[in-house]
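Retro notes
What went well: the complex prediction finally ran end to end.
Inputs used:
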Amino acid sequence: MQAVAEHEFPGSLTQNQAREQAQSLADQVQQAFVNQQPLVISSGGSKGFYGHPLEGEKLSLSGYQGIVSYEPSELVITARAGTPLHIIETVLAEQGQMLGFEPPHYAASATLGGTIACGLSGPRRPYSGAARDFVLGVTMINGKGEILRFGGQVMKNVAGYDVSRLMSGAQGTLGVLLEISLKVIPMPAHEETRVLSCSQQQMQTLLCDLGRQPLPVSATLFHNDRLYIRLSGTAAGVHSAAQVIGGDLLSADQFWLQAKEQQHPFFNSDQTFWRLSLPPAATAVPDDIAKQQLIEWGGAQRWLYSEADRCQVIQWAEANGGHATAVDRSKHGCTLFHPLSSALLPLSKRIKQSFDPAGILNAGRLYPDL
Amino acid sequence: MTLNTTQHDNLLNSLLPELGQLIPAQFIITEVEQLHAYECDAFTTMRQLPLLTVLPETIEQVQHVMRCCNHLNIPVVARGAGTGLTAGSMPVENGVLLGMSKFDQIHDIDLNNRTALIDPGVRNQSVSDAVAPHNLYFAPDPSSQLACSVGGNVAENAGGVHCLKYGLTVHNILELEIVTIEGELITLGSAALDAAGYDLTAIMTGSEGLLGIIVKIRVKLLPIPASTRVMLAAFATIEDAGHAIAAVIGAGIIPAGLEMIDQTGIRAIEELMHAGYPVDAAAVIICELDGSAAEVEDELSNVINIFTGLNATDIQIASNAEESKRIWAARKAAFPALARLAPDNYIMDGTIPRRALAQVWKQINQLADQYQLQVVNVFHAGDGNMHPSILFDSSDEDQHRRAFELGTRILELCIEVGGTISGEHGIGLEKINQMCLQFSTTELQQFHALKQAFDAKQLLNPGKQIPTLARCAEFNAMHVHHGDMPFPHLERF
């Protein structure tokens, strides 16, 4: 495929080099399987805080780079896990395309593999889909050191279980991602952000109302009684939607980038903060739980600082149809995920075991037994 | 009495009293005449009578059925509306057929969150009908949407004609309640946009009843687009039509629907539906654009320019909803229309990268000549999902054999160009051998290990979707014997 030559960059491997490296990574996993040696999968290190800290032998994917194929008219890109995310985004942008889930980088070193393994999505998520929604296929190494391929490079594929989507958010606990195929989307021709002053209650009412109309909303953020709504589409489509929404035009181009990368002043603190994932119209988080809040995703993602007891936050989120994650982004910080139900935990353990029978892949990253 | 009938009677004698503890007798069917209604899905060439059919109406009853079957080691096959095309819900011998048709309620329409909590037996179209007064709809729209159930849609990860823009079933559901083979009720996903832990909604969707029984579904609802425009463009060659498709996508336009039909298909449809399809064209493209009125008008003129520049011989633009409906109704009637051309019709479901379209189309026609059969191509061109339809007469044994061999060759072709053997219909039993072509032994073993995590005793829809290694060894040996080695040039890790 010609696409390989077109998208070479310093660090990208030839097919032969890639085959050798993949085999050597698989051999390393296979050896660890035999020796029951825990492995810590690493690449750009941009999301080290996102999970429990791990100890073990390092399995580095950072050299496993390259765009394997990319044809804009197919709306699909396939790249190796160690490929820097910014290179992928640049190559796509040159063709007027982008990753629809607008992934956060958190550092310039972010790679494609880590992005998919963590399954994090940015401001566009409720309107275009999450990381997992764009995964079409993966090549991976399971915990026995076997190189396996699931899914493919086509939009629709129901041959076998959808293992490739399962890898998104599994944080390497089910397999080492080698190569990932993603659906991509065209960049919108036009974008603008409207800003409105309103209370949280007014925001919820307005967003529920707008959500039932076919408007090209691509992001929302609510903070300090200001609601920011981004519109993306054709110029005519955006202008007519802007008239429906009203408010003022916001001219700060960096606004959504800062939101996505958690560089918004709200996150400028060493304290642990919470991410509550909720049904968008869920009731307001009570004041005794939320000291300060920033609300995204039309109400479905709420960031908060809290002085409440950990259990209280978790219980409130659960009672309101969602879940809570505690994030500490300070130097040696980590992330604690919402406890799994007594029905889900044993099933999840059996799934982990089916991919990683010796329990050596990023073991404990998500939960102590996974 | 043969061994099998003895086994059958013994199983029935042990199962019936256990089931009866919680399931009313009128919900259990054991008479052979009535069981015939459940012997196959819409892939009617494969049939099997179940041991019995049970039609529970509560989740507790489903749990009880599963506990009984688990205890007695009796296989269970779940069935929605029976519209599947791959024998996925065909019963297994001496197994229970679990019919979910009584689960037909829409429990909650949540307008603020734009979701609906529904039973698995609810028909696909009824969801959109129920929420239409609120200007909302459920996006997946398989051609069988009038009859098929949403539970079946989830089990097969059903698509439809609007997938390119709005995704498959997996993109349009948030939460599932499932009953495991042990009878445990588990919630996967959540009413929020994500859930803690592994993405088990993803693995459950498209698992064809092999991992658990779906008993409740929370679906996403979308606002009905303010404006929709449908056009029909005719092309003198397949190549021109293929280029036109690539050019639309390349221009950054994602149509809501982008379909392509070949000449035989056009003529068959036109004869049945009289929709004004141009019968002399080598191919037609149906393109639907949706969004705000302003957006759609912009895109419409772009698409017209692209099609005209790429030698479209005729472009019809529906001027009102009625005309749009007529164009779509004709497309959705493609299969009934083809059914009039021959006694039997074997529909393939391979998906290929769009760039390979013209080449694959040509090769399919060459293969069809070689096997002396007619193939009609109806194609979800936007997402690369082909539905070549092989016309044959199953009463002619030789034709029957040729049709199925040709089918395998077409699926091989799809794999060869980087595609897959199934885009949306599923594997079931119909394509189980071709799974051996697409997946390596270690990949199949990984699938089996995953199944084991859900169903250690292999009681859920056994023998479907994922072939055993023994089956593949046999199939590959036979297959190599018939022709060349399956694409030795393809790199497989």
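What we learned: Residues 139 and 270 of chain B are 27 Å apart (CA to CA).
What to try next: split runs per interface for comparison.
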